[in-house]
Known about the structure:
This protein is α+β, with helices and mostly antiparallel strands. The protein contains 28 helices and 40 strands. Strand 13 and strand 14 (about 225-230) form a beta hairpin.
Amino acid sequence: MQNFFPSRSIRVADGCLRTGQWWRLLFSEEPGGSQDLETCFSSRAASLFGEGPPSVALGFPCTEGPEKNFSFLLMWRHRVPPTSQCFRSLGGIDEEIVLEPRKSDFFINKKVRDVGCGLRHTVFVLDDGTVYTCGCNDLGQLGHEKSRKKPEQVVALDAQNIVAVSCGEAHTLALNDKGQVYAWGLDSDGQLGLLGSEECIRVPRNIKSLSDIQIVQVACGYYHSLALSKASEVFCWGQNKYGQLGLGIECKKQASPQLIKSLLGIPFMQVAAGGAHSFVLTLSGAIFGWGRNKFGQLGLNDENDRYVPNLLKSLRSQKIVYICCGEDHTAALTKEGGVFTFGAGGYGQLGHNSTSHEINPRKVFELMGSIVTQIACGRQHTSAFVPSSGRIYSFGLGGNGQLGTGSTSNRKSPFTVKGNWFPYNGQCSLDSDSEEYFCVKRIFSGGDQSFSHYSSPQTCGPPDDFRCPDPSKQIWTVNEALIQKWLSYPSGRFPVEIANEIDGTFSSSGCLNGSFLAVSNDDHYRTGTRFPGVDMNAARLLFHKLIQPDHPQISQQVAASLEKNLIPKLTSSLPDVEALRFYLTLPECPLMSDSNNFTTIAIPFGTALVNLEKAPLKVLENWWSILEPPLFFKIVELFKEVVVHLLKLYKIGIPPSERRIFNSFLHTALKVLEILHRVNEKAGQIIQYDKFYIHEVQELIDIRNDYINWVQQQAYGMLADIPVTICTYPFVFDAQAKTTLLQTDAVLQMQMAIDQAHRQNVSSLFLPVIESVNPCLILVVRRENIVGDAMEVLRKTKNIDYKKPLKVIFVGEDAVDAGGVRKEFFLLIMRELLDPKYGMFRYYEDSRLIWFSDKTFEDSDLFHLIGVICGLAIYNFTIVDLHFPLALYKKLLKKKPSLDDLKELMPDVGRSMQQLLDYPEDDIEETFCLNFTITVENFGATEVKELVLNGADTAVNKQNRQEFVDAYVDYIFNKSVASLFDAFHAGFHKVCGGKVLLLFQPNELQSMVIGNTNYDWKELEKNTEYKGEYWAEHPTIKIFWEVFHELPLEKKKKFLLFLTGSDRIPILGMKSLKLVIQSTGGGEEYLPVSHTCFNLLDLPKYSEKETLRRKLIQAIDHNEGFSLI
């Protein structure tokens, strides 16, 4: 209804503080129906005011500069009779209606800071904070009992430094420099917020319920009021007939300020009120409106009143920076200087060259060629200022002269306000006699009145720009200037107001959500479900600048505010995406990573996060998914540290009385990591999967016991006495921990199979029909027919028997299998199965890898057998030597092979495909001459296979080249070998399938199957144990390690094969490989002997280094076969 960003003095180059000039017309009601405008005007004016004096003009000199410079406040309006009690006169002008801006000279030597207009009264705020009022005082709206014909000081506010005012129909709010609000006038609907029983209050009173809250803006509707606090809280009070308070339909009126809780967390920059509707504007241009909507003044595409705040979605992307309201219409200003209007248009106040109402925001077409920097709404008219021309444009109801066009005609589109307007450009070429030209400083409209605050061209400063809001009227936000202000005080010597400022900022989610905005290219105006509108790097830098060791008091205050005020108030439902930002930025605060704050800040913060409703959590996940990897990892790392911290406490011991809360803490931290892991996977791995690994897990908990608890939970549900199991969140396990899990699972299944066999055997003692069974899976094979014998046994093996421990017996050999015989069995049978004589696999020389051959004559049973053998190897903790690419393990884990896999298997082909994808020109068809086919060899002949339907007729071009590469990869790894791999897959999962296996990443599964080659020979020496006469410094042991470290790599690998049955090391690393060396009673003529079942080496006591070298090499070069030793 009026301007809520009042004018203020500006210091210009010559050091003079100046305000400007204003123009104004006062009138109360618009003409109606088909009445003659002048007749209606005169009759209504007579009924209201009788006959009286016209408006007056005022001005004042500025004497601080080298010369006297004047600014003026211009007013024009209807005459008021001397007998009326509603005096609106400011004295001096006799015209009944002032149709164009007129200069007045009432406030000479008084600087005007702000002006507010009610329906029949006017309020002036001077630069020194004093308040003057004039006009109708029937309802106490002047705040004094002095003359009403001219402005008189409101003495009750003499002790206050008032900085802003706002007027309703007959009530006034005044805001002082301490953020306190004073009210007076009509209180019929509680619009004063004083909780009084009087109909009107004639002397200003402080609204005590707001006295502890720092208010930065106030706005009045006809019978309701709004206030915005420094902490981004919106308060409302007064009439709620149309929902203008935003408190819901049940509330009819409210006599004291009430917080609009549905708006908590949003960073606001402005509040505005119309006749019976209200708006708030966020820092990133989102508008929420509520209240009366009879003419569509809320812009919500209908005419239904709203009792709670509603987002005006159609303007979200328009970069709205300022909003103002008339009685039943609304105007919005964009960052680019455009103007949107909507609502009642019966008098042309929307500027669309029509008198139609608009229920949706519509841009004012005739202003689109200009950059507008100020707008203002009167009751039924609108004004706009274009600084490039210096002109003011107005449109709407003109019957009272409020348009300043020189007539009482209504205007349906923007029309220039009469006057010698001069644009400000920083310099003036006019001579000193040209004072009839005016440079506008600021415009304002309210009721049926308009103002222009201006100066002469010689003394003017730059005009106000509503696109750049006054910082003193904005909420707290964490920024460079504020931090420097806080840091400027010595540690431990904070004034109370600074402590309150820090507390207020970090106690408000709205303030934090308004901090660190992405101002570059106005990016924060793009805030939405896919973009947060914050500068994460700025957040990190500013947080680290604020939290410093040499300013502990700041850190303590911030921590206390977060712990006691901010986090406990967080809710699961949020009103807007802008209320989510601090979930993104707060983890950058160093206090969050301080272990002393884990249980008081980080975990409660995580609890609020995981409790978010589905919709806001989805938005937060979208925002996480577009973070740079270091920023995303920061959040992951934080909650990994929290988990480690809690597990360390668990290892020390948790008292029984605290176990439940401990479990909830651990669950929260792991749940946050689970959400982040889900985001990471969905986004195609923002960070590598192993960044989620918590390597300390194995040291801090018993993984085997945790797995057993997890199995019980899966079977029987969550039990009160079973703690949170880490197995529920397997993504934190590294490869070693997963291997331990898989081994634990295998041991459990083996034990179950053994127990079942024992039960059956016991039953067979009493029931002869039940056959006894062996508790182990026994394979009796001949070395010369190892494949055939194994296939014969495994074909007859029941699925449950695969879960038994494997024992291998070589026919004719006496060794008892304690592990070593089994190791050799896997080595020999895989060597045989992969032999080219079977033609089951194709060998690729460039990569030295093998893949399934689509030309084999072998049936699928052999591929099934290989799958079973691989599964048995894993199940029985044995490494096997397979030269398959990573694609095999991807397919086993249900992941798709990619071009990278083709590059690994067929390097030349893979590079060619990459060149095709990277080729920058458009002439791909002519350059590469490819179609959707592949050429394969078929027993010496070439054969062309189509990759897609009609592939031979489909040329590869720039648009479909990715499709061609994908089809090529799919053919090599999937289509061409589908039946063969399916048989292998079935065999493998028959033994080794299950949930635990799917926890592995492809490269981890590969390492577990074939081991790895991350050799650390010094670690091997360090982990070796000695028996008998031997010890680490024994002469024979010393020369043994000298000889060993001098061996070439191939001989060292042969030694591993000789001693352990494999030349590769387990996935758990060299530290998991325990060697034992013991002395023997024989002489130096004997060879070293290995016991692969136990990784045990019998080493004769050699005295000569060369003798030891010769005997050791002889032993490792002839290591096949088992016999009793």
